[in-house]
Request: fold
Amino acid sequence: MRRHPILSSLARVTSHGVRTRGVLTRRLTVRRLTAQRAERRRFGRGRFGRGRSSAQSGTPRQVAEVMLGEFGWSSGQFSCLDSLWMHESGWNVFAENPTSGAYGIPQALPASQMASAGSDWQTDAATQIRWGLGYIQQRYGSPCGAWGHEVAVGWY
Reply:
C-alpha cells in the first residue's frame, strides 16, 4: 500500500490485532499530530519534499521569510505572503486544486511553469517559493499587492 504524502504527515496511523470471541481483526488507530510535529514530519528537519535536502533549511515559512530579502522586500511583507499562501495551499508542497490543476505552495497554473525555477519543482518547497515570489514580483509588485488582489477579486 502506497503512503499518501500529505495524510501520513498529518496523523500517526497504527494497526494492531484485536481478538474478539476468537476472531482476530485488524484495528487502525489514527492520532492527529500537533501542527508543529505535522510540519516536521511533512518536511523533515531542514529538508523539503520527500527527503531531498535543499540549499535552504527550515520550514517553508522560514525559507520564504528569508527569501523576501532576495526579492528586495522587507520582513513586513511576510504577513501578507503567509495569509496568501495559507489560503491558497496551506503551505503544502503537494497541494493540488482538483478543478483547475493548480499545484504547490503558490498554486501555479499550469504547474509545469515552476520548472523555470528548478527541475525539482514538484517536490521542493524552496524551488516553489522562489518561483512564487518571482511571479508575485512580476505581476503584483509585492506579497501585500498579491494579497490585496486575492481579497478584492478572489484569486491571484
Notes: The two ends are 37 Å apart (CA to CA).
